[in-house]
Write a structure and sequence with these properties.
The chain is α+β, with helices and mostly antiparallel strands. The chain has 3 domains: about 120 residues, no CATH class; about 120 residues, no CATH class; about 230 residues, TIM Barrel (Alpha-Beta Barrel), CATH 3.20.20. It has 10 helices and 33 strands. It has an 8-stranded mixed β-barrel.
Length: about 550
């Protein structure tokens, strides 16, 4: 058995040896043939000289006539350009610091490539060669030599912008490529549409989900814009169902990732009506016939694009001039450094329950004004009651030299109840000393989050607006300045700011700066402030419009 196995192995080796021998014979024959051809050509040249034959020897074609000169012109610190020989033909090579080399063929046989034809291009990362799939010509040579690799994640990419509006790239580390990618196709892939019957379509975009009244079940884009910012493709576009049914707006960025382009920072917002969050809303959105110009963009629980207010002006506060002190106090200056804001607090029973407020210390700490809760309406039964520390806070704050205003926490569900709340405020002011009040009388309207069924939460936007107007008009008729307090989202979706545009606005937003561009007189910027003279956390406010101070 062993002998048979050895014999078998020998036969195998013999076959290999025979094949190798034939290969050597063929190579020898090929070399001999080449030598004969060379001698023959030399003989022809001699004969030509001797006989005077002037027939020219046909030369190969070169796309770039002087490759050395061109290479020297285009070489730079980040990319070395030089001629190279591959399989007997001249190439122009572009070598990058990360190891990628791009080889553009420059030399062709006489019958070779015509003008304008794509040139064979090879790419290498030092360990392998591939044929390049992206269209590259010698015309791209300067652009490619000057392009700095685009770095994203763990990848480095060479980027291509095509004349037809598509894009491509080479992953310079792995040699993977994306070719002729249309940004519109990538944007469309962000959306998933589902027909849910009755001419309703559910549109999912990232984590957002909206239902539209439409028989069209395809996404399209009208006004699609792409801007290339150092090879990050920023997409901005209105989004349609079919043609002409506008449903929202998409912002996204397209970047290379591995072997494909991908969307990052994608944000789709729906064009919704102001009553979209009303308790009775069906949440079915009617597409509109044109995109909303310069919309209000609302984020949070859903991203919405809404029409601009018609009567509410925009502010001119320059938040680049906002100064935040170590103690959490803030002030705003004009461009010359002059302070144009005042510091304040707003307080209620909850602040006093931690210990008596020393208003003299509060004033000395740099607080200029205080807005005191004077009363509230219950969230269930709707009983009106006063804040047990309102009188003390109003009188002692005024005595310490602070400007003082008051607020009432509303849960009114009718105009009659809103007027009742205003009358309660006016009555209490008279009892506590009207001379102490130099700031507006505020209606505090907000979502009561601990109990979604709180009576004030269940109003429609229209009903709540009527209640706010009723309160403010009653206060105004009594000779005081009314003011409305609410958060950003509540002020847009839960009542009509156009309808209350004549009353100053006290804005609640917790953060360093707000993108809210509409007018407000006071900004409540934290509920976790610290002020000498007040035990525990306290709301801090900046007054930005001094016209609300009673002369």
């Amino acid at each position: 058995m062993e002998q048979e196995e050895i014999l078998t192995q020998l036969k195998k080796h013999l076959k290999v040896w025979r094949a190798a021998a034939w290969v050597l014979v063929l190579l020898f024959a090929a070399v001999a043939t080449c030598l004969v051809l060379v001698l023959f050509q030399d003989g022809k040249k001699k004969d030509n000289k001797e006989t005077g034959d002037t027939t020219p020897v046909v030369q190969n074609r070169f796309v770039v006539a002087d490759a050395v000169k061109t290479a020297n012109e285009y070489s730079n610190h980040d990319c070395i350009v030089k001629p190279a020989q591959i399989m007997g033909y001249e190439y122009l090579s572009l070598s990058y610091a990360n190891g990628l080399t791009v080889y553009l063929r420059n030399e062709f046989p006489p019958e070779g490539t015509d003008e304008g034809t794509d040139l064979p291009v090879l790419i290498s990362n030092g360990s392998e060669f591939r044929e390049c799939k992206n269209k590259i010509t010698v015309d791209n040579l300067k652009e490619l030599s000057e392009q700095k690799p685009f770095v994203h994640g763990e990848g480095e990419y060479l980027f291509f912008t095509n004349a037809d509006g598509t894009y491509g790239f080479i992953n310079m580390l792995t040699l993977d490529e994306a070719v002729n990618v249309n940004p519109k196709d990538l944007a469309a892939s962000y959306f998933t549409l589902e027909d849910i019957g009755d001419d309703h379509v559910k549109v999912k975009a990232g984590g957002a989900e909206f239902v539209f009244h439409s028989a069209n079940h395809t996404v399209s884009f009208e006004g699609f814009e792409v801007t290339d910012e150092e090879h990050m493709l920023n997409v901005s576009t209105p989004v349609c169902l079919g043609s002409g049914e506008y449903i929202g707006y998409l912002d996204a960025t397209i970047v290379p990732s591995g072997d494909r382009f991908t969307l990052i920072n994608a944000k789709f917002g729906a064009y919704v009506g102001f009553d979209y969050e009303d308790p009775q809303s069906t949440k079915i959105i009617e597409p509109i016939s044109a995109p909303i110009e310069n919309p209000i963009v609302l984020t949070g629980s859903g991203r919405y694009y809404l029409p601009r207010f018609e009567r509410v002006g925009t502010h001119s506060y320059n938040w680049d001039n906002l100064v935040i002190k170590e103690n959490g106090f803030r002030y705003l200056t004009d461009d010359d450094g002059n302070v144009i804001s005042r510091m304040g607090v707003d307080v209620s029973y909850y602040n006093n329950s931690n210990g008596a407020i020393d208003w003299a210390k509060v004033k000395k700490a740099g607080i200029d004004f205080a807005i005191v809760r004077i009363g509230y309406r219950g969230i269930s039964q709707g009983t009106v009651d006063g804040d047990s520390y309102a009188k003390t806070n109003i009188q002692e704050a005024a005595a310490a030299g602070l400007d003082v205003g008051v607020y009432f926490y509303t849960q009114a569900i009718t105009e009659e109840e809103a007027i009742e709340e205003a009358d309660f405020v006016l009555k209490k002011i008279a009892e506590y000393g009207a001379e102490n009040i130099t700031l507006p009388l505020v209606i505090d309207t907000e979502l009561y989050e601990p109990k979604q069924t709180a009576r004030g939460n269940l109003l429609t936007r229209e009903q709540r607006t009527k209640c706010i107007v009723a309160f403010c008009e009653r206060v105004k008729a009594a000779g005081y300045t009314p003011m409305v307090y609410s958060s950003l989202r509540w002020s847009i979706m839960s009542y009509d700011r156009d309808a209350v545009a004549d009353y100053p606005f006290w804005f609640a937003y917790y953060g360093e700066r707000s993108s809210y561009r509409f007018d407000y007189a006071i900004w409540q910027y934290t509920s976790e402030g610290s002020v000498p003279g007040i035990t525990g956390d306290v709301d801090l406010d900046m007054m930005l419009d001094y016209s609300v101070i009673k002369k």
